[in-house]
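Late entry, written up from scratch paper. The run itself happened at the end of the previous shift, but nothing got recorded in the book at the time, so transcribing now.
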Amino acid sequence: MVRLGLSMTLVALLAGPVLAQTTQTDPAGFGGLADEADEEVNVTADDLQINENESTALFSGNVVITQGTMELAAPEVLATYGEAGPSDLENFTASGGVTMNFDDQTVDADQAFYDFAQRILTFTGSVVVVNQTGTVNADRLVVDTRAGTSSFSSEGEDGGRVTSTFTPEG
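Output as recorded:
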């Protein structure tokens, strides 16, 4: 019963703070995440393992986190919390290929990491952001949910360049 209560608390904390940080306009289109912060959070996975000695919770197998119209999917999500327990959530790492859908925009990456203290969401590895007006390819996307900013960078095979294609409005 303790594990179920811990799991439910962790589930509620996992996605909420990610989405509740800013109402500013973000150039990459993520500023609207804060607008859905009061929506119900749902996490589904094939398995949940809590390791109280390591202060971690591992969601694995078809993990899907939804809140409002935002959906984040990954094969695995590892959440780490501090000494105070799940209410002291430090970070989470989604890995194995991550997809986030929000407001007609999709982000695909190898991994996503969220730092709760800094309120920064980082996508790494073959990052592709697609929306109605274009596509951006990079090795890394950093979204500062507090400041409402995002930045793309690359260090890969193409000489470390971010590539993008935009469709002009006409």
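The domain at 2-166 is CATH 2.60.450.10 (lipopolysaccharide transport protein A fold).
(Scratch paper discarded after transcription.)
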